[in-house]
Design a protein that fits this description.
heterodimer; A: mainly alpha; 2 helices; B: alpha/beta; FAD/NAD(P)-binding domain; 2 domains; 8-stranded mixed beta sheet; 10 helices; 24% helix; 24% strand; globular; binds flavin-adenine dinucleotide
Amino acid sequence: MKSSAYATKPTRVTRWLRVFIPWQVIRFIVLNWKIIQITRRNEHLS
Amino acid sequence: MARVVVLGAGVSGHTAAAFLRRWLRAEDEVVVVSPKPDYNWLPSNIWVGLGRMQPNDVLIPLAQIYKRHGIIFKQAKALSLYPEGSDKLDQPHVKIESTLAEGAAAQELLTYDYLINATGPKLNFAATEGLGPSGNSLSVCTADHAQEAAHTFLDHVAAMKRGARRRFVVGTGHGTCTCEGAAFEYVVNLEFELRRHKVREQAEVVYLSNEYELGDFGMGGAHIRRNGYITPTNIFTESLFAERGIEWIIRSHVTKVEPSRIFYQTLSGEEYELPFDMAMLLPPFSGVGLDAFDKMGTNISSRLFAPSGFMRVDAAYSAKPYDQWKASDWPRSYQSSEYSNIFAAGIAFAPPHAISQPHYTATGVPIFAAPPRTGMPSAMIGKAVAHTIADRIRGVERAPHMASMSELGAACVASAGADLVHGSAASMTVFPIVQDYDRYPEYGRDLNFTVGEIGLAGHWLKLLLHYLFMYKARLLPGWTLIPE
Ligand SMILES: Cc1cc2nc3c(=O)[nH]c(=O)nc-3n(C[C@H](O)[C@H](O)[C@H](O)COP(=O)(O)OP(=O)(O)OC[C@H]3O[C@@H](n4cnc5c(N)ncnc54)[C@H](O)[C@@H]3O)c2cc1C
């Protein structure tokens, strides 16, 4: 069984940013934009 | 008048039927055959499996929706195909058997001009002794299975609140499983729920998988740009597990599940036992076991279907070594290799080979993740197939519509905790799904569209997708505006 010893772990700032609402609103917009781009490329194919 | 029969009302079949009804003439018939009365939005089964949603939140009764939209619905399961007709009927037809309580087991021969096989997978629990809800482990592959998993989970939580310790094992129940993304999603949600119930200290959480590396997900992993590095997804996944204290066992093939003990073998050939209190192990998938017969009644199943039971389509199936695999091996139109009026969409088509590199033990036991066919490509394939059929019926002369997994991208949002303020999810996009080393020589994918990140935004996205896709599946006004 493997566990944490050699794995990369997030810093406290990274963990805080993951639930910091203003930053997450921006990430939400960015992720949506990426997904829309992918669906556009997919649609273009068919 | 033409009749299109769609077998299966999952992501792929339901999408195909809805678009066919929209694109075909009023006099054409669209018939959906599916054994269950409901559509199941499978990605949210994860939340049902931990008691955060109820089966009703992920199931949509189909009969009313289809009636409203002029789609004929037969609650039945397909048994066998007669693509050339039979001694009973000249036209191509399919034999179906009712699953309605009142007409149970009544059989019917249903003729078609075009047939879409979108029957998804058979959950092959029988591949491993003791695997599955009728054995000694749990599953979240259907809403019922997920509800049973939730009851067991909540019973353990109650015991832990009284001071008991528990070991939870989540992963794959066989060396050839696919859908590791769902197991990953369940384990991180389970860990989140243990913290929410304030019993995390008393729990050991173990992820047990057939993947060669964590984060393989059956697509050979992916590379993403992060903080000035190009990072493989195993680093991303290990990091998430390490942060949450989830232990992991990879390269494993479960050989038997006893009431509180898992037996597994690793790629290096060693055999182990793992005691557990609750185990959610996904089954391997196979085709649903349709048979096919020619006009003379000769069984031609092996011509239409691969040994896995999935349908052969326009893919390059000739066996070749891993280093010769090409993106172009993957099917584009999903037309049966034998009959031009039969198509297979979603999980029902036979992939030409795996996406991840195959690995075998010294005695030849395969231990590697089979190729996933997630929601987005399954829906895109259903739509492309519907488009091709609609063109042919309306006499539009153009090439078939394409939806190759080596040209399609996919987004997958794996919930890692259901909470509007403290929740999170691992959001991943890959483009294309199957690596194309001719187009993207270094990593096989376009890194501008292959991303992965963890955060609350992902949870919002997952929740948004749940409501959007439930709305779309109900075919409510504007459903076509919601992308696949
Ligand atoms: C727990 C879980 C979580 C998942 N999470 C995600 C996720 O987060 N994101 C994502 O993109 N994908 C996810 N997936 C994968 C996704 O659900 C599948 O890619 C998708 O459902 C495949 O669609 P399909 O139509 O091919 O098959 P299915 O959705 O399985 O549909 C098959 C249909 O065929 C019917 N059928 C079966 N046998 C017969 C028969 N003999 N005759 C007629 N009909 C038959 C079934 O009843 C069903 O209606 C998840 C899967 C699971 C199991």
